[in-house]
Design brief:
single chain, alpha+beta, Heat Shock Protein 90, five-stranded antiparallel beta sheet, 4 helices, 25% strand
Length: 157
């Protein structure tokens, strides 16, 4: 794995039920440079983000592709999961609030920072960063999850 900040993983998958597994398999190639906890967190994050994009593309009227990219340096591993070749005509926020709560909680608990971007053409990307030198405790994971739910619900209102 390259630690120079350049792409350590750059792959594209069809947005179907196999995409989360395919993304995890691609991520496995990077594990030689990851400790067990970091690999676990990245696995959960890429699974959650890819599943989100597959479901949104499926309910948004079609199937495009999903682009997954990871870069790394001495400080952190960064990932981006983005739509490709998908035109989602639904308005922002069209998915159910309950699923968004769970997604927000999971992403915030596992990532040190994360967010989403919606391009003018409607394609969405989810980005996240996991720091190398810090492993949250169980209590910190729980606090992160709970705080994300509160923040997400406040954002909705």
């Amino acid at each position: 794995m390259s630690r120079n900040g350049g792409p350590a993983l750059d792959a594209t998958f069809t947005a179907d039920a196999d995409a989360p597994r395919a993304a995890r398999s691609a991520l496995a190639d990077l594990r030689g440079d990851l400790d067990e906890e970091l690999a676990f967190r990245l696995n959960l994050l890429v699974t959650e983000a890819v599943t989100n994009r597959v479901l949104d593309q499926g309910t948004g009227g079609g199937r495009g592709r999903i682009h997954v990219e990871f870069s790394t340096d001495e400080r952190a591993v960064r990932g981006t999961v983005a739509d490709m070749d998908f035109d989602d005509a639904r308005p922002p926020g069209a998915a159910s609030a309950a699923s968004r709560d769970l997604e927000a909680g999971m992403m915030a608990a596992m990532a040190d920072s994360w967010g989403t971007r919606r391009r003018a053409d409607g394609e969405i990307s989810i980005w996240f960063e996991v720091l190398r030198d810090r492993t949250p405790t169980r209590e910190e994971y729980e606090e992160r999850f709970a705080a994300a739910l509160v923040a997400h619900r406040e954002h909705l209102h």
